[in-house]
Amino acid sequence: MTLAEWCVFGALLLYLSTIAAVKWIRFRRFDNSRPRDPAFYEDALSQRALGAHQNGIETFPFFAFAVLLAEYRESPQRLIDELAALFLIVRIAYVLTYLGNRPTLRSILWSIGFAINLGIFFMPALKRFLPV
User: Fold this and answer.
1) pLDDT in tens, 71-127
2) Is 90 in contact with 63 (CB distance < 8 Å)?
3) Taking each helix axis from N to C terminus, what angle separates 44-72 and 103-121, rounded to the nearest 10 degrees?
4) Which residues contact 21 (CB under 8 A, 6 or more apart)?
5) Can you tell me the distance from the alpha carbon of 5 to that of 1, in angstroms, rounded to the nearest whole number?
6) Residue 59 — pLDDT band, cuts 50, 70, 90?
7) How far does CA 7 lie from the centroid of its chain?
8) Are 71 and 2 in contact (CB under 8 A)?
């Protein structure tokens, strides 16, 4: 597997762990028979963890597809790997700023992550201009 493919797996684990951590920390109050109970997410940290989790679900398909498309279309693997690793680092920072209630920085990081995704996605179209 390539580094980029491992980063796709890492992005999956990141969005799962974001909400799993809150459920684990507050396990006595979490009712697994009602996993979407709004009462569980009443405190601010749980709300932000849920928001970060949901955003991870929203961004994951585009990232995974962009990586697979770039690899399938034989774009420079080293560049795909570097951008995928950078995306994962930005997403980790995004989650931390989300949990830390830093909305402006969070929005900046989201924009950077989206730009990285666009770069990976359009890499096949720009392949002739990229270093081998």
Assistant:
1) 999 999 999 999 999 999 999 999 999 999 999 999 999 999 999 999 999 999 998
2) no
3) 10
4) 49
5) 6
6) very high
7) 9
8) yes
pTM of model > 0.85:
yes
Residues 94, 39: Cα–Cα separation, whole Å: 25
Assign residue 74 a region (left: φ > 0; alpha: ψ between -120 and 50; beta: otherwise): left
Residues 6 or more apart whose Cβ sits within 8 Å of residue 48: 98, 99, 101
> Residue 38's pLDDT is what?
84
Q: How far apart are the first and last CA of the chain?
A: 20
What Cα–Cα distance (Å) separates residue 116 from each residue in 48, 75, 83, 84, 119? 24, 15, 6, 8, 5
